[in-house]
Specification:
alpha+beta; 41% helix; elongated
C-alpha cells in the first residue's frame, strides 16, 4: 500500500507543506480501518497512535491537524487516488478470474442542501470470488452510469472474466467493450430495452407451452433453504439464435438465458422470471453462478459500506472530498477483508483494530 500511495502527485504545489503527502494518506486509511469517519476522528487517531505510526512513517512535524487532512483531500486528484487503489488491488490479487459485478451506489448525504448539487454517485467493480473492490468511477447522477461504466471497464483486466451489470448497463457499446477486452458479459434484458426483453420473454413463453419440444437448451436447478425460506431457481440457456433478429447488434452474442426464481416464505409463494443475453460459451453452471454472485456487490460491498462504515450518512460534500473519502473506505474494507487470521465480522475487526495496535499493524501491513 505504501508504494502505491507514494507516487501520487501532491496537490499542494504552491502551499507550505509541513507534512508529507504519504503520511497524510496512510494515517487516513489506518484511521478508517480503526473506525474513524471524519477528519477530527482521523486527527485524534493519529495523535493517539503517533508512536506506533512513527515506526513506518516520517512524521517530520508530528500529526497533521484535521484542517490539513480536510484541505489535502479536497484537492487530491480522485482519479489518481483511485488508480493507486487499483494498482494495490492488482498487486494483492494477481489474477482475478471469475465474476466481476458492476453496480452503482449513491452516497446520499453528500448532496448539497436544497438541491444545490447532486449527491455523489459511484459505479464500482466487485470481484465476487475474491471479495474485493477493483475500482470506482464517480458520476453526478445515476442516469450517467451509462457513460461511467465504459470508463470503469477500460481500467480493468477482463480477460477470462464474466462481467455482470444491472439493466442500466445493457447497452451495445458496453457489450462490445467487454468482449474487446477479452471478457464475457451477462446482461439483463428488462423494460429499458423493450424489444429485446419482449422477444426473449415471448420465446420462453412459447417454449414453455411446447414443453421445450424442438428447442436445444441446457438447464440447471438450485435450491436454497434458510430460516423458513425456500428458494428454487431454474436456469435455462438457449444457444440456437438463428430466429433472433437482434443477434448482430450484440457483440459475440452466444446465448439467451432465463432464471425462474420461486420463493416460499411461511407458506406464501412468489415466482419471478428474469431474462439475459450473454457472450458466455461455456457450461450453464458458471452462468448460474455468475448470475447469483452478482448480488454480492450489494451484500458484501454496498451494504457493508452503509452499515459498517456509515457511508450514507457521510456529509463530505465539497470538491473532491466525498469521492476521495469513498476511496479511503474501500482501502480500509479491502485491508480488513485481506486479514483472515481473525474470523470475526468486518465490524468486529474494526473494533479490534481500534483497541489493539498489533492487530492494526497486521491489517495494514499484511
Amino acid at each position: 500500500m505504501l508504494g502505491c500511495l507514494s507516487v501520487l502527485p501532491d496537490p499542494r504545489q504552491d502551499m507550505n507543506k509541513l507534512h508529507l503527502l504519504l503520511d497524510i494518506l496512510v494515517i487516513a486509511v489506518c484511521a478508517a480501518v480503526a473506525g474513524a469517519e471524519g477528519w477530527n476522528e482521523v486527527e485524534e487517531f493519529g495523535r493517539t497512535r503517533e508512536t506506533w505510526l512513527k515506526r513506518f512513517l516520517s512524521l517530520p512535524h508530528g500529526i497533521p491537524s484535521h484542517d490539513t487532512f480536510r484541505d489535502v483531500f479536497l484537492r487530491l486528484d480522485p482519479t489518481a487516488f483511485s488508480e493507486a487503489f487499483m494498482t494495490w488491488t492488482r498487486g494483492v490479487h494477481r489474477k482475478t478470474n471469475g465474476t466481476i459485478a458492476i453496480d452503482g451506489k449513491t452516497v446520499r448525504r453528500s448532496g448539497g442542501s436544497h438541491g444545490s448539487h447532486h449527491p455523489l454517485h459511484l459505479v464500482s467493480a466487485w470481484a465476487t470470488e475474491a471479495g474485493v473492490c477493483l475500482g470506482q468511477v464517480a458520476t453526478s447522477e445515476k442516469s450517467n452510469e451509462i457513460t461511467a461504466i465504459p470508463t470503469l471497464l477500460q481500467m480493468l483486466e477482463l480477460k477470462g472474466c464474466l462481467v455482470t451489470i444491472d439493466a442500466m448497463g445493457t447497452q451495445c457499446e458496453i457489450a462490445r467493450r467487454i468482449t474487446a477486452q477479452c471478457g464475457d458479459y451477462i446482461l439483463p434484458a428488462k423494460e429499458n430495452q423493450p424489444n429485446l426483453h419482449d422477444q426473449i420473454r415471448d420465446f420462453f413463453a412459447t417454449a414453455d407451452e411446447m414443453n421445450f419440444q424442438d428447442v436445444e437448451f441446457t438447464t440447471v436447478k438450485t435450491v436454497e433453504k434458510d430460516h423458513g425460506r425456500v428458494e428454487t431457481r431454474t436456469y435455462h440457456l438457449v444457444r440456437d439464435l438463428e430466429w433472433f433478429d437482434q443477434k448482430e447488434r450484440w457483440a459475440n452474442l452466444a446465448a439467451i438465458g432465463r432464471v425462474v426464481a420461486e420463493r416460499r416464505v411461511n407458506g406464501k409463494a412468489s415466482v419471478e422470471s428474469r431474462y439475459f443475453i450473454t457472450s458466455w460459451k461455456g457450461d450453464i453452471h458458471r452462468f448460474a453462478d455468475a448470475v447469483r454472485r452478482h448480488w454480492g456487490i450489494e451484500n458484501s460491498l454496498h451494504w457493508v459500506l452503509d452499515v459498517v462504515f456509515d457511508e450514507d450518512h457521510c456529509r463530505k460534500r465539497i470538491l473532491n472530498s466525498p469521492e476521495n473519502f469513498a476511496i479511503v473506505r474501500k482501502f480500509a474494507l479491502a485491508l480488513l477483508k485481506r486479514e483472515t487470521t481473525s474470523k470475526g465480522s468486518i465490524r468486529g475487526k474494526r473494533y479490534r483494530a481500534t483497541l489493539d495496535a498489533d492487530y492494526l499493524e497486521k491489517v495494514i501491513l499484511g
